[in-house]
Amino acid sequence: MEPDSALYERDAEMGALTSLVTRTGSGRGGFVAVEGPAGIGKSSLLAQIRTVASSAHCVVAARGNELEHEFSFGIVRQLFEPLLTAADPDQRDQLLSGAAGQAAPVFGPVTGDSTGEHDFAVRHGLLCLTSNLCEQRPTVLIVDDLHWADVASLRFLIHLQSRIDNLSLCVVVALRPDEPIAERHLLDRIITDSACLLLRPRALSADAASTLVRAEFAEATPGAPVEDAFLAACHSATGGNPLLLKETAALLLAESVAPLAVNADQVARVGPRAVARWVSLWLHRLPAQDLALAQAVAVLGEQVPLEQAAVLADLPMDTAMRAAGNLQRIELLRASPLAHETAPVGYRHPVVQTAVYQAMAPQHLWAVHRQAADMLLQSGAEAEKVAAHLLRLPAARDPQLLAVLMRAARDAQGRGSPHAAVTYLQRALGEAPSAPQRLELLHHLGQTLQLTDTDACVRYLREALPLADSVRRRAEIANQLGNGLMLTQRIPEALEVWGEALAQLPHEEQDLTAKLHAAMLSVPLFESAAPEMRQDILREVGRQRLLGPGQTVGGRFLECVIAGHDVVVGDPRGAPRALRVVQDGELLQRAVGLTPLALAWWVLICADRPEALSSLDQAVTQAYTEGSTSSLVAALTYRALARLRRGSLTEAEADAREAIQATETAGISLHHITLGPIMADILMEQGRLDEAEDALDWTLESDDLPLTGLIYHLLLRRARLLRLQAKPGDALDAALAAGEAFVAAGGQNPAVLPWQSEAALCLHLLDRDEEARTLALEEVRLSRDWGAPLARGRALRVAGLVHDGEQGTAFLEQSVHRLRPSPARLEYAKAAADHGAALRRAGQRTQARRLLTEAFDIAQRCGAQPLLQHINTEIKASGARPRSPLAGGIEALTPSERRVADLAAAGRSNREIAQALFVTPKTVEAHLASSYRKLDITSRRQLTDRLSAPT
């Protein structure tokens, strides 16, 4: 039997694909992308691997379609809906159990008024659904024509890709490299990810091309000679593309061109556009009913039920079935049984469908799309399926179309696909003749775009503002518009918009008034402003501070902003103010992801308050289960900061990486300026300086970096990195620049930005100790006012390092005393190590070893490798043997392992633990295996005994 023509010379690709599919049986995931031009054989490779995998794997497949490009989660639904539909109730419940239930809106009707602010929860639910499926059986997900996938599905695949290692899953996708689509950046992320194996099938060699063409002519004209010059012309004209070779041969046969050398010139004429020419030839020859059905299928898209195509083509069912059979025989449509009316029909290749579609005149195409929309609407189809056709039509100011598009937007948001919602709303503007209708659309667009396209958000909200039908509505829009203007560094405009709205609000609108005040007063915390403007804002901060907290949500927002000002200047009243706002949890339900709550977390973190971490744990859980990407990124970013300050580096890094992944997937640059420096700090503590530099570079990747007033965070981390890279001069310049920017923003608190101590360390390395001591003592003074242990202890430690003799040792001793009872374990380890080193130099070796040993154990639990090396050097200098890493015991467990072990000891199953911690069951298995090894046990019963034993 001859192989599929598109599988000639594809042994290497099939070997790689088969290997990845096979290893899923051992619980190892894999992701592979097959990239190449149309006709190179991608679909044939996917079909072959589907056959190979079907015996031992659950195989689910989908195909992107240009006409359904905006249909939210269209690819995801193709993959999973058939499984969920075919499953019995118990199986369906199992697949959608736990967190997977968050994906249910994707597969069913959308109910209620959804704001669409749960896109991450839906993505995470789909990940859990995939995990549940893989637990039942190793699984292969196949997606052809990924370049036409919808944005929501692409973002799910990116979310899945970074977590695939611990799943019994192989994902195989195929895409073209040259499609001019807006989502190219998402495709590039998929194929450039380190988890992705990229295969690029090459064009066929001259020998393989000759074999293929000979076979085509031999089947049609057995025994007829096929000359080498003719074959060479076929290879040259098509570039060795299998599809073009096949269609060139078919067209030449249809035109009765003999495969002889004398006809080589005709090959050159046909080859480059063989598919389009072949389709055109057949379209002109088709009977009217066959042509009508071919065009109906081209408009309706992939795998359309024959009965729908028949209705659109205005054909009786028996006539449609005959026409479909005719189209299959000439290989326009894919060969498949036509035993019933609902049998799916589709083109055998997207290139053929595109050729038929593009051959239709625009006016005729619009008419058919409108007919398709009406047909689907009458049949009760989902609004998004109808909207897919409306997107192809010119604006008509039709109220019926407006209603469908708005319903499609609501459904898309309800499924967690804001990108699709924006597309439908933008198209709906052309159908909205009245001011109230335009107001709703413009306001909705502005809200939906505020995180991903700030310029567009501002543009739509500006247009909406004068259309507002009440003072309250105008103020709501002005609040959002001002935020957009601030993010695009148009501070005077933002303040003007907010000020005008405030001036118009009546006294009884206390909540909205407080929200507008909070927005205006937050400007100096994030953005540079003119000195006189800053002074006006700070005077208003003082006035609002005297008025006392409001009881509304807006009042709480205003309290958060005032607390933010307190922490910048080092006013200790900021911590209790922030605590009052968050302690009852109301803002967690209403404001996760919003700036005021993030400010409260920031204040509590800078104050070393444990309530920050407990609030953030709740916020992360809430974001996973019901939140948006923005709310998750905000919660993870600040939890990473809280964990970093406590010294939990492994967990801090996990949070920061998850936040970065979510930020990149959703295309949100808002958090770069905060998240990048935090990640760099984590990596520097672990000694991974090259990665830290990459993190700082990532901070500046966005072309339109928001919140540039916070640039001092980036400058200080750059200074620290340069110091660790043994470039103290450059480091000093960066530290002083950070300090200058911070002071210009009104900053004084070293708990926010310890620039004096960083500059002091740089000066000390440059032998400029008098200057170093001046700066270090200034930070000691400022940290005393704020009072938080970490800031105070760090300032004292640096003062001890830059002072000589007994004075330096005294500062270090004070640092240890301040930090010992605090949650700042890593900073305490640094202080203990430096104090121990000073005592060793002073000849107090016994006391030095005790401190150094304690510091070593803490630093090891934190995962601070450079500090461990420093401590071991000091231990060796004290005359003791260097310490070895903890090999076992409870103290050797990482924080993540301990958390998994505690849940397992409490009787939770692996699945329950995975869902509680938002990881895969395979990850739980890995943590438990490592814990068993460290604790020298083999069972959960032993785990319970071991963890409960006194230490």
TrEMBL record:
The keyword ATP-binding applies. PROSITE patterns: HTH_LUXR_1, HTH_LUXR_2. Transmembrane segments: none annotated. It comes from Streptomyces flavotricini. Residues 886-951 form the HTH luxR-type domain. SUPFAM superfamilies: C-terminal effector domain of the bipartite response regulators (SSF46894), P-loop containing nucleoside triphosphate hydrolases (SSF52540), TPR-like (SSF48452). The keyword Nucleotide-binding applies. It comes from the Bacteria. Keywords: ATP-binding, Nucleotide-binding. PANTHER family: TESTICULAR SOLUBLE ADENYLYL CYCLASE, TRANSCRIPTIONAL ACTIVATOR DOMAIN. This is AAA family ATPase. SMART domains: HTH_LUXR. Pfam families: AAA_16 (PF13191), GerE (PF00196).
